[in-house]
Design goal:
357 residues; alpha/beta; Rossmann fold; 8 strands; globular; serine-type peptidase activity; transmembrane; Peptidase S9 prolyl oligopeptidase catalytic domain-containing protein
């Protein structure tokens, strides 16, 4: 009997060790899912399918990896905010185009969509360090563009994208005006214990009470809870209370952590919102919450005459500025010229006519 129990114990231990080894070796495949089951890695559609004008933008991350992205302008004459959008962990940016189309319609904004390394047409393999480089490359590109208002760049991340966005906002307090987080987790360490309950005894984030013996083997911890307290920009938290993947308590914990050091935080929850459909189930209230946040923290920057910042300040081109100035001043010049001619005419007339008798 003792022999059987001993063999059973050894067998269980072997299975546990093998399972743990597999988790360590394959962890990136569990966190990052560039290709959905049954679908190709390629984009199924482009923005053109939704009648959106767009620009293919190719970037180089700091470590040399080539990245693909889409810049989708609202319109040539619209100088609204620019949303730098970071997607969830599964699929590619094409799967978010319907959301982006509605966002542009409701918020009158431009959108920049980045394909993480290993996703879509981007090269490389996903990792926390690598995706952090990718996000920085995207923001640096936007900060140098001449066709947007660079003072109104807003980072928007959903789920994994929220973790990416939080790190980027923390590292760039002067380049991003605000941060929006939707259905984001406190950390991958905490999510591991939720997805695989037996791991919660060995892996956990800063809020976990377990021994955390295996935290050191996790290569993509994405500890958003530790980061969000250091973000200086205003933050909007959008939480779907029916989220079936990330417990809504994670969003509340992130908000509570952020508001300790940042007064410019807003929390909005949506009773019927699930992980991927909060933007649909939230309806008008969802978009109104974002619009009010943008109006307050990424407002339209106007000059003294009520117009947008002049093009001369952006690209050094004098011609548009001089033309606009001429158009404004021309009617005034005509009026004064006519007035001078009229005064001269009457003065000449009175001088020529003898009224003495």
């Amino acid at each position: 009997m003792a022999g059987w129990l001993k063999a059973l114990a050894y067998g269980a231990g072997g299975v546990a060790v093998a399972g743990l080894a597999a988790l360590v070796a394959l962890q990136e495949r569990l966190v990052y899912v560039p290709v959905l089951p049954g679908l190709a890695r390629a984009y199924p559609i482009t923005p053109a399918r939704l009648r959106l004008a767009y620009e293919d933008v190719w970037l180089r991350a700091a470590d040399g990896v080539r990245l693909h992205s889409w810049f989708i302008p609202h319109s040539p004459t619209c100088r609204g905010p620019t949303i730098l959008f970071f997607q969830e962990n599964a699929g590619n940016i094409a799967h978010r185009l319907e959301f982006v189309r509605l966002m542009m319609q409701r918020l009158q904004c431009n959108v920049f969509m980045l394909s993480y390394r290993g996703y879509g047409e981007s090269d490389g393999y996903p990792s926390q360090k690598g995706i952090t480089y990718d996000a920085q490359a995207a923001l640096d590109h936007l900060a140098q563009r001449k066709d947007i208002d660079t003072s109104r760049i807003v980072i928007f991340g959903r789920s994994l994208g929220g973790a990416v966005g939080a790190v980027l906002a923390k590292n760039n307090p002067d380049k991003a005006a605000a941060l929006i987080l939707e259905n984001t987790f406190t950390s991958i360490l905490d999510m591991a214990g939720i997805m695989l309950p037996f791991l919660r005894w060995f892996i956990g984030g800063s809020s976990s009470k377990g021994p955390k013996l295996l935290n050191c083997v996790v290569r993509s911890p994405w500890s958003t809870l530790d980061i969000v307290g250091e973000v200086k920009q205003p933050i909007l938290f959008l939480s779907g209370l029916q989220d079936e993947l990330v417990p809504p308590s994670h969003m509340k914990m992130l908000y509570d952590k952020a508001v300790e050091h940042n007064r410019n935080c807003r929390f909005v929850d949506f009773p019927s919102g699930m992980h991927m459909d909060t933007w649909m189930s939230g309806g008008d209230r969802y978009w109104r919450a974002i619009q009010l946040f943008l109006d307050q923290y990424a407002p339209e920057v106007q000059s003294r005459d009520g117009s947008f910042k002049s093009e001369i300040a952006e690209d050094g081109n004098l011609l548009p500025y001089l033309f606009q100035t001429f158009v404004r001043v021309y009617p005034v010049l005509i009026f004064f010229a006519f007035d001078i001619v009229l005064v001269y005419f009457w003065s000449t007339l009175f001088t020529a006519v003898d009224f003495s008798g």
